[in-house]
User: What shape does this take?
Amino acid sequence: MSLPEHLRQDLFDLIPGDPAILILDFDGVMTDDRVYVREDGLETVACTRGDGLGISLLVHAGFPVLVLSTEKNPVVAARCRKLKIECVQGVPDKTLEFGRILAQRGIQPRQAVFVGNDVNDIGCLRQAGCGLVPEDAHPLARQAARGVLSRAGGRGAVREVAELLLVRLGHGLLYNPSDRTK
Assistant: This one.
């Protein structure tokens, strides 16, 4: 399968030949890093539906996707439930947890794709075979990453990495089975 025009070859080349998992930070990756706080203290965030569809395409392809978040917030768990992906949150040391997740699943770090956006993601970005950051990531996270995505967090960054993975895995980018040619 050839690389669609809208995807960058330099980023595709960073995706491992045998990727085994996509691990995502939540705030600043699946969201635009803003939080809305209501007067009753309830926090809400905005996520892009296109990012959600990208995750759904990976899930339909049988590819594991997991959210790893320092923050413990019901909105993180709710979004992950809706997308049918695993959620590990309230983690004080993401680097240690990242290694534990991979070891528990028998995945080599070189097979992992990680997307983070801030200084608490630096260790994971360095350990992953493919550490990526959204276009608007913190400068230190950008330095630790192997690649910078074309899109900002909560604005298509997750969709971009999902499509890169789907192409690497030999899957199409079409959602409906009836749209795919045989």
Remarks:
- The chain has seven helices and eight strands.
- The two ends are 14 Å apart (CA to CA).
- The first strand starts at residue 21 and ends at 24.
